[in-house]
Design brief:
Structural class: alpha+beta
Largest sheet: 2 strands, antiparallel
Number of helices: 3
Radius of gyration: 16 Å
Oligomer: single chain
Shape: extended
Strand order of the largest sheet: 1-2
Number of strands: 2
Distance between the termini: 10 Å
């Protein structure tokens, strides 16, 4: 349940950050990003904040791994919502 909530928060944070970017500034990198997303072997590194410290950690994964994690998180969130609607455990 907690992992589903965290997955939802990550997805919402990613969407919010994209929406806050200026339209002109987002248009140019979007074209370059779409080319990078087509290559599943491309290595993508991101600095992610760690709760309880000011130091961020750097995580490097392939685009295929990122896409698989997003799909898994989305499916877990949908399963959690379905269970919550039914009133089950």
């Amino acid at each position: 349940m907690i992992s589903a909530i965290l997955a939802a928060a990550v997805l919402l944070a990613d969407t919010t950050a994209t929406l806050q970017a200026a339209p002109d500034a987002a248009a140019k990198p979007a074209a370059a990003a779409s080319k990078k997303q087509n290559d599943p072997t491309a290595l993508v590194c991101k600095s992610e904040p760690v709760l309880g410290t000011r130091l961020a950690t750097k995580h490097c994964r392939t685009q295929a791994q990122i896409d698989a994690q997003k799909l898994e998180d989305r499916q877990a969130l949908e399963r959690a919502q379905t269970v919550a609607k039914r009133g089950g455990p």
